[in-house]
Input
Amino acid sequence: MKYELWKTGSSVLATFGLYSVLYRENKFYRFFEHIFLGLAAGWTLVVIWVEIEKDQWWGKMLGANNDAGTSMVQSGYWLYAFLVPIGVMGYFVFSKKHNWISKIPIGIVLGLYAGQQFQAWLQRYGPQISTSLKPILPTTFTSITVPDNPVPGEVYFTQALTNAISLFTLLSVVAYFLFSFNENNKLLNRLSTSGRWLLMIGFGAIFGTTVTMRFTLLIDRMHFVWIDFVRDMLLRR
Amino acid sequence: MSIGEKLQSLPKWILFLCLIVTASVLQFFNIPLPNKPQDPAIDYYAFAMSIPPGSTVLVSSDWTNSTHGESGPQFDALMRILMRRNIKFAVYTTADGQAPQVAKDEIRRLNEQRVKDGERPYRPFEDYVMVGYFPSAEGENLAMSINLRSAFAGKKDFPEGAKEPVDIWQSPVLKDIKDISDVKALFLISASNTDQIIIERLAAKVPLVYAVTGISAPQNFNYYSSGQLKGLVGGLKGIYDLEYLMTSGVNHPGADGKIAVASTRVPGDVPPLPGRNQGLGTAYFPTLHAALALMILAIIIGNVGMFMARKAQGASK
Output
């Protein structure tokens, strides 16, 4: 319990230390900021060795473990050793004379990534393109809004309206990005202006949710300080 | 200095202090709010409840303490659903080296809570495995779609009380899984861009169910609308919805015979989850409203101040 108290107490102190920057830049804040950065960097280094390099590369290279992860005696995949010089070549980006060497690993990575992107793009946007084609005319007027038990396949007025707004947004935003068309086309200009407005509304929504996320983080920290530490740990001891 | 100018030049630290006080004081009160869960959250809950007990799912836990306010309650709610329904899960991350430890801490805390509530603790290696961290989200998720066994090869986890780690493929969680299509779903809790990478690499192979931060929610609604996601929980509103659904169910008559949440999207009755369901999402939601009200008030004060100052300037000219 004493250890838990000290641990949580230190976290509370660090929380106040980091939030103290809201008042002004100060040494208390800087101290905790450096602790945080040091811990994060150190932790990441260890994790990369323990979780990845040790078993996935070093162990396999030396024959200490195979693909199934079990210990075994074998000659090892010695070709894995060639990954080191390829990785080291990347650091030549800091050399003025030999920085061409760094372009080799960068090229390999870019080639692999570019090759994947065809499939990735289709998988990401393909379904969105096909589902953008929605009916914009209602097929029934038995109810304006979607009733509790809608008839399958029927398009109600509010559904059609939503679909129409969605389609208009899609077309106007696409028009906004058609820079190679004649600017004197009035229809395209108006569509493009609508697109700009609708984009602004979209960005506003994203900005709004960003603000709520920051607020939620503060609320979470205050919950940790007042409920988890003060109420549940200090007052109920 | 006129009143208008004074209103515009309130010191920043006073506003921050008001915000901190608001965010602190309301934590001590349990304020119920009316709620109408959104369709993406209803689909999330209905899908999670449709997974057969005993089957295995993947959990991509791509968040750390920097988004604990939103991702923490999302992770807790998902764990509660999976644990109570005896669904096995394997947790991996491609976002951050700290994420596996954060997930482990949350599972340990939830297990302590389960024991207190009289439920059985979820056992490491038997009921769930920690696969760990992979540094390249693109590479790892692509490898998973091609050959899951090869992608997770060499990863080990500790069975309960063991001193030496054991290969994760020997665990009851994964031993019958040959391919990613054998996994019933991939649940993502994300505070990074892995939401898009997983759609690009895995959408065709396994049903995806997302819980994302408020910032990522608007773009993920596109993937939900197009059917690429089976369900979506976005930000604090999403988690408030999910905790509400865990308590009320969908199309499920309560003790008074009334249905709290009715939805035509979900066929039949999806029952509530017995036990403790309301967590941090329910605790934070009223406080968030007060904080947002404070922000709106500050914007109004600033604008009133600006108009008063302009009026005073106009009068003096």
In short: Chain A has three domains: 1-76, 86-131, 134-237. The first helix of chain A runs from residue 2 to 19. Chain A touches chain B through 57 residues (CB under 8 Å). The helical segments of chain A are 2-19, 27-62, 83-89, 103-131, 157-176, 186-235.
